[in-house]
Write a structure and sequence with these properties.
The chain has 403 residues and is of the alpha/beta class. The protein folds into two domains: 249 residues, TIM Barrel (Alpha-Beta Barrel); 123 residues, Lyase, Ornithine Decarboxylase, Chain A, domain 1 (Beta Barrel), CATH 2.40.37. It has eleven helices and 17 strands. Strands 1, 11, 12, 13, 14, 15, 16 and 17 form an eight-stranded mixed β-sheet that branches. Strands 2-3-4-5-6-8-9-10 form an eight-stranded parallel barrel, surrounded by five helices. The chain is elongated, with a radius of gyration of 22 Å. Bound molecules: pyridoxal-5'-phosphate. Pyridoxal-5'-phosphate (PLP) binds next to strand 10 and helix 9.
């Protein structure tokens, strides 16, 4: 493995984004979707760093937003309003107004009461609100319970038992235009089987809820395709072709219905790494700790979802040992990994925590009054496996470090 020497003026920890890998991922995702005439919206909450979203917008993806500020940011970053969708169980009046004022493609509504409020706001603005109904289909995603969203006990979407009533309300209101149905069953789904089960539900509901008779033309199937956190280097591209094929094989909706997806993690997770310096090592009774200068502030996923990220030492090639890698924050959950093998590690070594392109920088916390981490952009394809010092300095002098 090549040894990595960052220039002195980059302070750790920082996020490092590989734009070449991002482009390769986008190419693969867009081509796989285009084969079937599907459109992808990028889930902004996964990572809204402008360097990332600029690249994504250039590939023609739409945006999927979960707050008014995300809608505003997507517009500012040049996503066309007609390619923006907006979901969320708790949209405020102000957020609904913004979405209607900006003429986004569709609001994905999650309850009857939200639909009633949306109608009232639309009437006040003398505008017709384009809405899709987010359905809670009762499909298990076989993922961590905190990122499962399509089960009956989850707060998301309209339950099947209320769906007809909600659809009738939308169909009959002069201030609402019923665009279609929306689903999103969870995240980091690593088997294609839940998606196949989803298509069965969708086919059934499109028929029994008379979606054609209601004039629906939009079917939004959400996101959730998982990535390989265990072997990010060997498996950096998610199986987009297989994923879309499942839908193409099993979906039975009329040809004029526009099928859309909302992918976040699978687009950006693997292009990001969190680079952190080792502050200290110390021995516990039965374990050795590596104390990094990054913590749950920069990467909250292990503390929030008990998730694992692959970690490598960029500066040591010594014999392997077993470590727990922890952060500096005053929380016992501020742990990145337990009982992992790393080359013998000491103060000053640099570690790469892999697969930090999604739900890492965008979840950054300032808890403990910590500094905001910086960002470095690299193009690994054109500059060798790791960015060299000269290239990194160029990046920084162009002002691309966002902190
Ligand atoms: C978060 C979210 C997504 C993206 O999920 P990924 O697992 O990152 O693909 C898509 N749709 C909605 C409604 C979301 O909330």
């Amino acid at each position: 493995m090549s040894i990595f020497h960052p220039s002195e003026n980059i302070s750790t920890p920082y996020y490092q984004y590989d734009l070449a890998l991002l482009r390769q991922t986008l190419q693969h995702a867009s081509e796989s979707a285009a084969v079937h005439g599907y459109k992808i919206h990028y889930a902004m909450k996964a990572n809204n760093n402008p360097a990332i979203t600029d690249t994504i917008r250039d590939y023609g993806l739409g945006a999927d937003c979960v707050s008014g500020n995300e809608v505003a940011e997507a517009l500012r970053q040049g996503f066309p309003a007609r390619e923006i969708v907006y979901a969320g169980v708790g949209k405020s009046d102000k957020e609904i107004e913004l979405a209607l004022r900006e003429d986004i493609l569709c609001l994905n509504c999650e309850s009857l009461e939200e639909l009633q409020v949306t109608e009232e706001i639309a009437r006040g603005m003398q505008k017709i609100a384009p809405v899709a109904i987010r359905v809670n289909p009762g499909v298990a995603a076989n993922t961590h319970r905190y990122i499962t969203t399509g089960l009956e006990e989850n707060k998301f979407g309209v339950h099947l038992s209320q769906l007809r009533e909600v659809l009738d309300f939308a169909s009959e209101s002069p201030w609402l235009q019923l665009m279609g149905l929306h689903f999103h069953i969870g995240s980091q789904i690593t088997s294609l089987q839940p998606f196949e089960m989803l298509t069965t539900k969708v086919n059934d509901l499109w028929q029994t809820m008379n979606m054609d008779e209601r004039g629906a033309t939009l079917l939004n199937l959400g996101g959730g395709l998982g990535v390989d956190y265990d072997n990010p280097e060997g498996n950096s591209l998610p199986p987009f072709a297989e994923y879309f094929d499942v839908f193409a094989r099993h979906l039975q909706v009329p040809g004029h219905v526009k099928v859309r997806f909302e992918l976040g993690r699978s687009i950006v997770a693997q292009c990001g790494k969190l680079i952190t310096k080792v502050l200290y090592t110390k021995k516990g009774v039965n374990r050795s700790f590596v104390i990094a200068d990054a913590g749950m502030n920069e990467l909250m996923r292990p503390a929030l979802y008990q998730s694992r990220h692959h970690i490598t030492n960029l500066t040591s090639t010594k014999a392997p040992q077993i470590y727990d890698v922890v952060g500096p924050v005053c929380e016992s959950s501020d742990v990145f990994a337990t009982h992992i093998e790393l080359p013998q590690t000491g103060r000053g070594d640099l570690l790469a925590i892999h697969s930090c392109g999604a739900y890492s920088e965008s979840m950054m916390l300032l808890y403990n009054m910590r500094d905001r981490a910086g960002v470095v952009l690299v193009n690994e394809n054109s500059h060798g496996h790791m960015a060299d010092e000269a290239y990194m300095s160029t990046v920084l002098s162009k002002g691309n470090e966002i902190s």
